[in-house]
Design a protein that fits this description.
Strands 2-1-3-4 form a 4-stranded mixed beta sheet. It is about 50% helix and about 5% strand. The chain has about 400 residues and is an alpha+beta fold. It has 2 domains: about 270 residues, 2-methylcitrate dehydratase PrpD (Orthogonal Bundle); about 120 residues, 60s Ribosomal Protein L30, Chain: A. The longest helix is centred in the first third of the chain and has 24 residues. The protein starts with a helix and ends with a helix. The chain is built from 20 helices and 4 strands.
Length: about 400
């Protein structure tokens, strides 16, 4: 049996992107750059100032949790791949090679891997970042396979970090591990390529489930409409669809959905803005209270508003067992108002899902929401120009690294 690392390296080396693949890569570049620029004043920026480029840019790009998601693998592909490619001087083809590997690795690890507590963005991301950086550096197939194996020791990350800087930092570590592994492979380092198969098996995946056909990124990418965990996108959107029917005080909100679909939402009583991004009750509260649940809805002050905390206490969740992803089934939400009116809403696919992709106007609105100057900064963006922009906006502080 051909080692998984070798099979993926051969696929990546031979990749010839279609027009649809290149359009996806273009949108991923713009989306990732925009959400990173939106975080330019975040408290994480000085924290990561001494880290290498890929780690720094990925951590900043993920801290707002506004970046895209690959639903089938439950991984944030672009926030790992784009920084790795930019740090290695790559382009759309390098991105698509890494993104395709990450999607396939995350998928063959499967939902049991994610639901057991692993942060699949990191476990699938580190070896995939090695491919993205390696393609950018012009590595051969054996070198790409070696780089993937060299990234295995860094293929870690757990969901317990959600709601803290640890989540975005471990994403940054995965991106940097891939770049480092590619450089080591280029320099002549050796590794057992079977290490990737051993790792996949150890964390509950099936190396024999690898599928290489289809588009570069099977299933496409989901674009977030709200700056919070993807598991909150559907409940927020469902409530917003019936806001005009909700009048007066709310006595109780009953949420019925699959347990799998809210698996990452580990903070029932959030006390910080970051925890609020991983809270089902707060998803309902912000959807009811705010005209648009945007950046201002996920600050410490917003999460601790008296009216928000009151609504959080009135959310009751009923979970159906089973499920194999964040879009399992649908969400059903019953809003019980003080005047006796009950408003019922159901939703399967939130806005921005691959089956409900954003229009050009909607995507432009998202870029604008990331900062008034962002559309102009990215108007003629290329992979090279975004790399230069990141170096200017998020420079490395050599003194901080010491």
């Amino acid at each position: 049996m051909v080692p998984t690392a070798t099979a993926l390296a051969e696929w990546a080396a031979q990749l010839s992107p279609t027009a649809e693949d290149l359009a996806l890569a273009r949108r991923a570049l713009l989306d990732t750059a925009a959400v990173a620029l939106a975080a330019r004043d975040d408290t994480i920026v000085p924290v990561v100032s001494g880290l290498p480029d890929a780690a720094r840019w990925a951590a900043i790009g993920h801290v707002l949790d506004f970046d895209d998601l690959h639903a089938e693998s439950t991984t944030h592909i672009s926030v790992v791949m784009v920084p790795a490619v930019l740090a290695a001087g790559g382009d759309a083809r390098a991105y698509l090679a890494g993104a395709g590997v990450m999607a396939r690795l995350g998928t063959l690890m499967g939902w049991p891997h994610y639901s057991s507590g692993w942060h699949a963005t990191c476990t699938a991301g580190a070896p995939a970042a090695a491919v993205a950086a390696g393609v950018a550096m012009g590595l051969s197939v054996p070198q790409l396979a070696t780089a993937m194996a060299l990234a295995v020791p860094a293929a870690g990350g757990v969901q317990q970090a959600f709601g803290t800087h640890g989540k975005s930092l471990q994403v940054g570590f995965a991106a940097e591990a891939g770049v480092r592994a590619a450089r080591l492979a280029r320099a002549g380092a050796t590794a057992a390529t079977e290490a990737l198969d051993a790792w996949i098996s150890l964390v509950g995946g099936r190396p024999d489930a690898l599928v290489l056909d289809g588009p570069a990124v099977p299933g496409g990418l989901a674009i977030k409409v709200f700056p919070c965990c993807y598991a909150m996108q559907r409940p927020i959107a469902a409530v917003r669809e019936v806001l005009d029917q909700v009048h007066g005080p709310v006595d109780q909100v009953l949420v019925r959905t699959s347990k799998a679909s809210v698996h990452p939402l580990i903070h029932d009583r959030p006390r910080t803005g970051l925890e609020g991004k991983f809270s089902l009750p707060y998803a309902i509260a912000t959807a009811l209270l705010d005209p648009y649940p945007g950046f201002e809805s996920f600050t410490d002050d917003a999460v601790n508003r008296a009216e928000a905390r009151s609504l959080v206490e009135r959310v009751v969740a009923e979970y159906e067992p089973g499920g194999d992803g964040l879009l399992t089934g649908e969400v059903e939400i019953e809003i019980r108002c003080a005047d006796g009116v009950h408003v019922l809403t159901r939703l399967s696919a939130p806005p921005g899902a691959p089956t409900r992709p954003p229009t050009e106007a909607e995507f432009a609105d998202k870029l604008g929401a990331c900062g008034a100057d962002v559309p102009a900064l990215l108007a003629d963006a290329t992979w090279q120009s975004v790399g230069e922009l990141f170096r200017r906006m998020f420079p490395r502080d050599a003194a901080a690294s010491g």
